[in-house]
Structure to design on (777 residues):
């Protein structure tokens, strides 16, 4: 699998190459239904999101009903059927983060980015999502941006964090 | 055996029994909703919760197995309050338009409300889903009514093995659909309609065709003809309070006449005709493949009435009466469509004959005819829209209604069904043999075909008690039989010693097993009968609810009783079949037959 990952990072792949890569992924996971979630994760890594066509391709290659594949995709909030922005901002609303102001951070982010949860800014820069507990309750409240975790965030700090990304340098 | 106590009553049940089953066996009533005996136990609605001593939470009795010494209370205050709250919560997300709902008084949610004595509805709130998918010509999905019991999901995935319906999204947003971006009309759904027979509420139902029929009946310029499938007469009575398996053929005919149909014909007539066409087709394929394999000479072939051809015929041949099955093979085994008999399904044949042979006889233009088929089937609503089902520019059949819709129309017409006299179908497309009746049950088409084919080859009757081929009947998934030809007639002598191998199945699970064998080139059979719905048409997607194995068996018994009660038991002995060949069609597989009674199929994709 590490090989597969390495193939994607270097440059933007063509659609044909993406589907070829996805086929390799499915093969590596032996097309087993029990590996569907892993395969979907890898597909999202390749395509950035999971549109109906990609779900259909996976269903066909794995010989599963499309309703089952889309059932899993729509069940888990991590999977997205719409294109995502360059940066995915996730706000933790687990119990510890919530009581320490997670909700306020979310409101501030919505206001700042001008989008709702699940949406992407017009310039395709940011996607806003919520998550349930990152397992870092001691650092609450936290947000994560493309996997990088920011601890003890407060609503007033939000724009400082976003600015770094707006300037393109992290 | 396990000993336990339910409501202070000591009982003893087999291991692995659930609490709900244990209670039922001992006449203790536990209200339930999503549970469907033998098919679906998931504990999704939780209405069947009970109090188990020692357990902190209430347990869903449909999925909790009994254990030694268990002490259960099914009617404690806590249980009663819990199920009422559950019910009220379900109601809070359900349109309460029961009086104008098609399931009024046949709704299981409504019945449950009465059973547990709901007198208030305390929760008002947002509705989770409010859209109707009417893209399929057969089935309507009204999501606003769905209570997420998932019975349809089990039937579609586990019983039929198709998997068109599954849960999408989660929590309050959960919906049952093919996928958020795929309406039913674009999915590779077979339209078998088994989901509509298990839906407890009005969320899944057939697309209504009654309005166009009322319009046609009121139109003075239309000659309106109706035909009924073999399986209707053994099930329609259930909609009027009869026990499953009650035969109501005569009352059904009288009701149709009272509703104003100009002619009441019988799909059974064209079931007999199907046997003539399909039986001949089978013989043609068998002798054709012997000829291609150089087992028989040109001369031997021609003596049987067939002509040499360059095409090597495909075996096994598979029946083509079930439109759900046809759509299934087109989507899931498109490479196998050459195995299908080219015969149209019996009601399409009858429609084609109404608008040709009969139209000429009564001197009515085919375009001024309106042919209605009463079918146990939702897939037939799709079948009549197929572009192949048109002759001389007019569709063979104009509308299909299910058994359930016919019952609604009879009620709507203000007819006292049970008081009707025994009516008789009209001539010349109304007389049928017992072989036609059994088309409605799994194994029936095969038995009917064997009764005729065996006699054509040997000149003798099928050598079984009451002409029944018992090994291919019944509810098992795949049933097989072998029949060795001995002492054949002179022109068929080359078949002496040949063993004819046949298989029958109902439901797509069995069909997929048989098709996989064909795909691998390992199918030993000459002839296979497939019916799309488990049990055959008697439990088709358009039949009265509920349909379970007990009901299936009773309807099948009734079908065989109807068969045995007839003097005519074999299709080729039906005098009206003989006349239609003499007067109009010529011979089976002749030019006119090809034009009117045979069809082609379309390769479709699975995704």
């Amino acid at each position: 699998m590490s090989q597969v990952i390495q193939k994607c990072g270097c440059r933007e792949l063509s659609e044909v190459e993406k589907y070829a890569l996805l086929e390799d992924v499915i093969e590596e996971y032996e097309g087993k239904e029990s590996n569907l979630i892993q395969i979907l994760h890898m597909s999202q890594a390749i395509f950035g999101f999971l549109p109906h066509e990609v779900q259909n391709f996976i269903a066909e290659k794995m010989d599963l009903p499309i309703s089952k594949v889309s059932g899993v995709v729509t069940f888990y909030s991590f999977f997205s059927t719409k294109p995502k922005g360059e940066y995915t901002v996730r706000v933790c609303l687990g119990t510890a983060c919530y009581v320490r102001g997670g909700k306020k951070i979310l409101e501030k982010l919505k206001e700042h980015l001008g989008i709702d949860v699940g949406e992407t800014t017009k310039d395709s820069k940011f996607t806003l999502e919520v998550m349930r507990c990152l397992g870092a309750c001691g650092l609450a409240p936290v947000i994560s941006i493309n996997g990088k975790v920011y601890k003890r965030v407060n609503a007033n700090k939000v724009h400082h964090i976003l600015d770094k990304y707006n300037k393109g340098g992290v | 055996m396990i000993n336990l106590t339910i409501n202070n009553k000591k009982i003893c049940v087999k291991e692995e029994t659930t609490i709900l089953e244990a209670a039922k066996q001992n006449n203790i009533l536990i209200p339930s909703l999503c549970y469907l005996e033998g098919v679906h136990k998931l504990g999704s609605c939780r209405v069947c919760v009970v109090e188990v001593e020692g357990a902190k939470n209430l347990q869903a009795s449909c999925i909790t197995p009994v254990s030694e010494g268990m002490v259960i209370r099914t009617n404690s205050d806590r249980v009663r309050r819990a199920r009422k709250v559950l019910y009220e919560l379900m109601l809070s997300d359900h349109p309460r338009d029961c009086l104008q709902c098609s399931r009024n008084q046949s709704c299981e949610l409504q019945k449950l409300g009465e059973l547990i004595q709901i007198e208030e509805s305390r929760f008002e709130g947002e509705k989770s889903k409010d859209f109707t998918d009417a893209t399929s010509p057969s089935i309507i999905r009204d999501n606003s009514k769905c209570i997420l019991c998932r019975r349809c999901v089990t039937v579609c995935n586990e019983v039929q093995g198709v998997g068109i319906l599954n849960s999408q999204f989660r929590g309050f947003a959960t919906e049952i659909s093919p996928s958020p971006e795929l309406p039913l009309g674009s999915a590779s759904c077979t339209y078998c309609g088994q989901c509509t027979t298990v839906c407890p509420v009005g969320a899944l139902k057939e697309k209504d065709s009654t309005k166009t029929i009322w319009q046609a009946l009121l139109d003075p310029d239309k000659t309106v003809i109706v035909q009924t499938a073999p399986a209707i007469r053994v099930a329609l009575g259930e909609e009027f309070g009869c026990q499953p398996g009650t035969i109501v053929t005569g009352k059904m005919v009288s009701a149709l006449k009272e509703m104003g149909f100009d002619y009441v014909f019988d799909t059974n007539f064209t079931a007999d005709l199907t046997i003539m066409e399909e039986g001949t087709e089978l013989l043609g394929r068998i002798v054709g493949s012997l000829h291609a394999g150089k087992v028989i000479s040109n001369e031997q072939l021609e003596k049987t009435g067939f002509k040499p051809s360059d095409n090597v015929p495909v075996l096994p041949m598979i029946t083509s009466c079930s439109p759900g099955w046809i759509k299934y093979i087109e989507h899931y085994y498109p490479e196998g469509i050459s195995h299908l008999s080219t015969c149209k399904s019996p009601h399409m044949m009858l429609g084609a004959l109404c608008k040709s042979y009969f139209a000429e006889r009564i001197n009515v233009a085919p375009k001024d005819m309106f042919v209605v088929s009463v079918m146990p089937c939702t897939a037939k609503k799709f079948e009549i829209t197929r572009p192949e089902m048109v002759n001389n520019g007019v569709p063979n059949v104009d509308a299909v209604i299910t058994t359930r819709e016919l019952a609604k129309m009879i009620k709507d017409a203000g007819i006292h069904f049970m008081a009707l006299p025994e009516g008789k179908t009209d001539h010349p497309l109304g007389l049928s043999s017992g072989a036609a009746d059994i088309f409605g049950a799994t194994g029936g088409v095969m038995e009917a075909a064997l009764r005729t084919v065996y006699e054509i080859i040997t000149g003798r009757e099928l050598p079984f008690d009451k002409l029944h081929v018992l090994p291919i009947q019944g509810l098992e998934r795949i049933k097989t039989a072998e029949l060795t030809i001995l002492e054949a007639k002179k022109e068929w002598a080359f078949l002496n010693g040949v063993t004819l191998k046949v298989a029958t199945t109902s439901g797509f699970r069995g069909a997929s097993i048989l098709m996989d064998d064909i795909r691998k080139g390992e199918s030993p059979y000459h002839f296979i009968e497939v019916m799309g719905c488990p049990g055959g048409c008697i439990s088709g997607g358009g039949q009265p609810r509920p349909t379970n194995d007990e009901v299936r068996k009773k309807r099948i018994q009734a079908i065989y009783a109807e068969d045995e009660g007839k003097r005519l038991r074999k299709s080729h002995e039906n005098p009206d079949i003989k006349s239609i060949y003499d007067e109009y069609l010529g011979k089976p597989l002749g030019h006119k037959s090809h034009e009117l009674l045979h069809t082609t199929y379309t390769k479709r994709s699975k995704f």
Remarks:
- Chain A has two domains: 2-75, 87-166.
- The first strand of chain A starts at residue 87 and ends at 92.
